Amino acid sequence: MTPFTRTTVRDFRTLFARCVSGRPRGPAPPVVIQTKDEVRTLAATTPEGVTLTHASPAVKESDDLLVLPAAVLEEVEGGTEEAVALDRPSKLRGVLRWYGGSTPRTLPVELILPGKQHDLPPPPASSVVPPKLLTALHECGRTAAKESGRYALSKVQLQGKAGRVVGTDGKAALLWNGFPFPFPDDVLVPAVPVFGSRPLSRMTEVKIGRTATHLVLTAGPWAVWLPTDVKAKYPDVAAVVPRYAPTTVAIDPSDAAALLPVLPGLPGGDHELRPVTLDAERIVRVRGRTESGEEIGETKETPLPRSTTTGPAVRVVLDRRVLARALALGCRTLKLTPDKPAVFTGDCVTFVAAQLDPALHAPPGADEPEPIPTPTTLERRPTVKPETNGHTPPRGDPADPLELAEELRTALADAAGKAVRLVAVLRQGKKEKKVLSAVLTNLKQLNLGGTS
């Protein structure tokens, strides 16, 4: 009997370790090897009820059920497709045989007496879904909370009718649309990191099915059985997304690529909330401010010259980790509403996060020059002399009120920046109070019940 190959064992151990959120608790569960209808299935179940299976052909082999100690897999895993053979001198004793390089290896095994609890259920009928579902489950799982409170924020929600996957921790939320689920209702499943693992991400055919107790995701020979929860409460995340945003920022892909590597190094990274200021004006800028030490109050900014703003100019303060993650997800359209969560949108993806306390904003530096727009953002036009029709032109047109207002606004902004730097040291003593206020503001903005 050949129950598995060494690479299958390696990948199985990698995936199963990620079928739990956090550190595994208790002893490692046994491994079940079931041969039935010429299909061999390798399976293990976590204490939380998540089951991982791997199916392979077992042509002309009789039905059988073996239960091995989990420690056996660690001994035989490897990086080759070499088969591992099992000899059974008795019902509960076996010997595994394989080659470790050019040297034959053997491992005596004490088998576990199988019971009804080790029987594997037949796989359910399944429907093909886009492979992006694995990414959606992984990213929404990353967004979920570590623990649940009044709401089941430690789980991921699949909305059957809407074709959407949702994850939130009460401070940020991720909504991923575009999946034709074969069920109409909403279901909650554990947020586990297995769907971001390489053995699954290599698969191009993904299916989804459902039993009375589990949601089953199949990717190639692998399947993950997730226990479902239809009774726990989950917030209406879509309801917190503002339907109308007066200001929209479109971040150019090249600007996003240039911003991501420098974002962690902007001043203020040692602050608990890691704030950065996004100025959505004629030229979009991202700015950080030093919050402690001898250089307190000093700012540094990165202009995004190819990005554009539609609507009123606005200044928002965001956690730089939120901004970085949104851009990494491809969400480069930012919709901003005063006193509402910031909304990042991309292809079928919406990422929502609370704005930080405006008191944490970084003002422009007095010595920072105005960035010059690139040729793609300014259109050159020739100077056209006005028609005089033989009359003497007036000595000068009156000043444009809009230009005067713009100059006044710029002057006031510069004055405000100097004033902020002047009192920065005095404000340092109130830092702890501002941090607490910012945290409370985050929770109030999303209002998802994560703290109850």
UniProtKB/TrEMBL annotation:
Residues 289-303 have a biased composition (Basic and acidic residues). Residues 289-311, 360-401 are annotated as: Disordered. It comes from the Bacteria. This is Uncharacterized protein. It comes from Frigoriglobus tundricola.
